[in-house]
Amino acid sequence: MSAEPEFTLGNGDSLHQQVLASFPLCDITEEDLTQNPQFCKLLTTLAQHVDQTGLTVPLKTELDKAEQKLQSQRRHWLRSESLHTGLQEMIQDHSIRKHHATVPPDQNMFYETMEKCLLVAQCIRQLDPSNTTNQDQPPVLGLNSQQVMELLPPEKNVQRMKQGLPRELENHLKKKCLSLLSYYQPEWENDSEGLKNTKLSHLSAQLDKDKKRSECLKETCRENTVLLQRQTQLYLSELIKCIQLLQSLILDHRLRIQTDLDGKKLEYLEGKCELVLQKIKTEIVDIQLDTYTADSISAHRKIREKLVSELKACQVEKQSVEIKLSSFEILGKEFGHLAEEYCRLRHEIELKNWALKEFTQYNNK
């Protein structure tokens, strides 16, 4: 277990760097830590109890133990699975060889025995319930392990197969390792058998070295990604500050020159308005000069004088009529009926006079 990180409260910049290094997954910057010293102190204390992934020390210990146990069980399972897969591949290769070439009878018997043993072992594993299955489960097809064991080949063939199996399995695994070596380094394919065996003995160490190098590159890539994210965030924050500063400068510049611009624009609009008004007056005068001559103006004046005199006469007549009407209104409603009757008789007289006039004109014709 790694030692707990220690922090000193000396230099503020170094403290901030240590806090950021202790929490690489947190999206915080030095500015955040500077503006919030209590939060920085909290992270400093918290970094003594958790690792970079955020796990506490006891939980990290339990996780490491569980990981070791898992790796041990995984290796055990991979060992048995690799052995079973290798045997299956050997049987498959033998079946392919039988279709392309003649196989010796003893070799044919060896692979047939091995295939039957694998099938029986697989059936027994299916029939034998493990701790994770229900013990009361009825057997498949009513069979038990002892009945399936009776299907094994003769004991003599099984013993012979067991004696030759390590050698055949070793040859098969060696062939696979050589194929892996040729895939890993194609330029080694034309080397001699002894040189290949020598290089094959160092293949595991070379693969471990490449794996560690790959993991180191992944870690470096992750660190570079985190650093790039921080730099990008810092760049964006600085860019926003620059934009805000530029906006404030533009606003101040606009405010300073806006008064002068408004004054000049107002003077321009006033001058333009005055020019338009003078032009309108000029056009009115031109229209009046083109429309009214000296004779027409004198005639209009005489007409106006006559109309004014007639208007005054009409107003005098109106006043006299209003006086008469007011005197008639004193007489009451009966005089109103007499006035209406008088108006009706006057209207009938006018109609008859008009008819008589028309009739006289018709007779004269």
Task: Note down, in words, how this protein is organized.
- Helices cover 81% and strands 0% of the residues.
- It has 365 residues and is mostly helical.
- The chain is elongated and about 165 Å long.
- It starts with 11 loop residues before the first helix and ends with a helix.
What is the count of β-strands?
0
Overall 3D shape: elongated
- Series of secondary-structure elements, N-terminal to C-terminal: HHHHHHHHHHH
The percentage of residues in β strands lies in under 5%
Q: End-to-end span in angstroms? A: 147 Å
**Whole-number radius of gyration?**
60 Å
Low-confidence stretches: 1-11
How would you sum up the major sheet? none
Tell me the structural class: mainly alpha
Question: Mean of the pLDDT scores?
Answer: 79
Number of helices: 11
Residue share in helices?
Answer: over 70%
Topology:
Layout (H helix, E strand, L loop, with lengths): L11 H11 L7 H6 L1 H10 L10 H44 L4 H23 L17 H5 L5 H30 L8 H9 L1 H89 L2 H37 L2 H32 L1
Compose a concise summary of this entry:
The chain is mainly α. The chain contains 11 helices and no strands. Helix 4 runs antiparallel to helix 5 and helix 5 packs across helix 7.
Record keyword descriptors for this entry.
11 helices, mainly alpha, 365 residues
